[in-house]
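New to this. Look over this protein:
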Amino acid sequence: MTKLGLRDSVLTLTLIPTVIIGLLLGGYFTINRYIELDEILYQQGATISEPLAIALEQPLLEKNKKLLNRVIRYTHNKHSPAVKSIAIFNDNNQLIITSNYHRSFDTLIEQTQIDSFKATHVQQTEELVTFFTPIINHTTPNSDWNTSEFQTTLGTVVIQLNRDKAVIGQQRALLVSGIIIILALVLAAILALRLSRMFMNPLNKLVLATDRLIEGKRQTGLTEPMNGEFELLREGLNTISHSMVMQKDEMQKNIDQATSDYRETLEQYETQNIQLTMAKKEAQDANRVKSDFLAKMSHELRTPLNGVIGFTRQLYKTPLNKNQKDYLDTIMLSANSLMTIISDILDFSKLEAGAMELESIQFQLRDSVNEVMTLLAPSAHDKQLELSIYINPQVPDHLTGDPTRFKQVLINLLSNAIKFTEKGAIKVDISHRLLDEEQTSILVSVADTGVGIPADKQDALFTAFGQADSSITRKFGGTGLGLIITKHIVEAMNGRITLNSAPGSGTCFTFNGVFRLPNHVFINDLPTQSLIGKRVLYLEPHKHTHHAVVSLLQEWKISVTRCHSESEFLECIEKSEINFDICLIGHMASVDDMQQLKSYVKAVRESTDYLYLMLNTVSHNMREAFIGSGADACLSKPLNHRKLCELLAAPYRLDHPTHNIDQHEQTLLPLKVLVVDDNDANLKLIYTLLNEQVELIDTAHNGSQAYSLSKSHKYDVIFMDIQMPIMDGITACKLIRESSLNEDTPIIAVTAHALHSEKEQLLKDGFKGYLTKPIDEDMLSQIICDHSPQLPVSRDKSKSTFEHSTAPFNSTRLDWTLALQRAGGKPELANEMLNMLLLSVPETLNLLNQAIVSNDCPQVLSVIHKFHGACCYTGVPKLKTLAETIETSLKNECVLDNIEPELFELQDELENLLVDANIDNNNKKDEL
């Protein structure tokens, strides 16, 4: 809606009423004049026609036409030009005489019924007004009074009058009215403009004065007096101006005082900032000292522990029976667990610094969980606790992520559950939710029947050194770091951990982690084919363990007869008409229950071919006692799915051998490929993998050699390392693009580790793509498929298998399965690449020590980058992770102090790897 100004409002309020009143009055008087002129014309016609009708009575009676003609002509001439014509009709509507016979006269005669008129009648058209007056006979021939004869009509006189004069009068009245209205409007406009000027001039001055006040000027300029209320406004503005001047002066004084105070405050802040900077530096120094202390203490603690692990490995090389090997396995697992606990100290330090990173390697979920359960089972058995694990059959076994951190979370939660549970059971359930084709979320819950945790103490558990009760430290021990580390690890896996507990009702921890699904999945190596259709009698009173084992057996397509109690078990034995193939009996195996368990063995021995016990004990003597009473073998709970399957299938594997998969001859692609890398191990691996896919392969050790070859040979694909001596990969790529036979050849960057920004820069520098080490056959096949016209050699993932091979030495730092995978399943190549890595370790340590002593950060980065590339293909995931962490940190900020703990840890791990491989660090290069 548009708002009118004062000037427009005055004009509007003045002119609109004037227009309305003028139109109403002009219309009123004009209409009255119209009616008045019409009435005058009617009166004139009646005044002429009625006397004329009386005057024509006698001539009509005498039928004196001459007299009639003289009368009407006289009348016509007297009232001309108002009268257009006068006509006389007899009583039969026949024209007797007329004063003016015009063209429309016949129409008048035809349309008018004259004999029906008893008095003067008027008809009006646009141009004429016609009067019809009857001529009455007022005389009678008889003396008798006869009213009907007295009022007889002799004829009709018709007079036509022109309306021209009346119309002219009406138009004149309309014109005069319009002129009067226009004059009134003009006068009103003049008065309105004058009135608005009387208001606007003072108002404009007041507005200008207000603008001056807004601009901060001291004078308003309102010196001349004004009329009426405007004078009050002028005085008010002058008063406001004076007050503003006073306030401005006062405000300036306050500003000056505040500025002075502010300067004093700034000086205080500067002093405090200097103190804070000094305190920050002291805190950083203290933090650096703490990191140094943690790193050195970690080194000192690992040294004797490495001795335990080393001599345990030496014992592995001596003749051992089955029980001794089990004991050594437990010692090794415990030592590794202790090593992990020591690493927790560094983990917490990394958490505080925000430097914790997760590995991304392929692992088998069920084997990782079994390692944790085997490690913690003795503690649960000592307290007579039922420790059971159920993994949903739909959960994928092959995942890509950080198995060490996953096991660390599980160990922390299970250790707490065992620690705070005096009787009952501890249940582990694992399920999953598929997020997309490449990721899945693993959901793990750990429930116990322990003391429980009050609601007001639960939040404190996930803080550093937080525990539900201070007395717990004295009763159970512990530092209170486990759950805070667990929480951060779970969050790093894009998951969350929750707690549900109540005093006396136990505790249930639930967490989830997001893992990637690997592209390459190996076949299931469990001998399940020989178990299909086997009849198994299974007794297990504990519901969770019962459900978990039955799920496994059904997954292996075994026919299971379930028994939850002794009565059901004995009833099945009595009713069975044929023997069972296998009988499984699960029991707590306490000393008090030994006789009962032996009675079960005796009762079922004749009804089954093979009898196996599953006991909550690791006692060799107890297991031997039960085997002596008739059982074929004993397994410790919780069940390892791999051991259970191998045990059940052992008697049948000769009857059902595994059929070898037919190996079809593979056709090599007609491609010529150039591979460029300064690391001999990397070069040999890529050459070996490509040799199974393409026909021709050339190699170069630096960018200069690659550029020379590209000028004389045409290649289909070029694989180029980035950091090389003489000429790096980026420079070589640019030269090849500028002038060679391979300007259009796709060049693929091969790098051990590249940040996201570096990968984008590689594409801008001319590379068509990039491969991140470690490289396998699928990655090479995909690159060839994407960047060459030939299709890669097809391989069926479901049929991929590795040649059986054992590791050259036992070491927790060596993942031989991963090494075989990186070598394409070739044990000879895996051994050769491992040898090359081990032989390069002394030189790497020497160069690294020299660079650290001289504080040469670029040299450290160069050594670490080269070592990282070698680790990608030799199955040493922890060393690869350390090298990747150090390289990433140095690329972001080349400061050695930031990665000092990691450097110490890397040096320790390299020395331990040499000890495991029996290689002397003093430049001894004995063969493995």
Q: What stands out?
A: Residues 470-479, 655-665, 791-802, 921-928 have pLDDT under 50 and may be disordered.
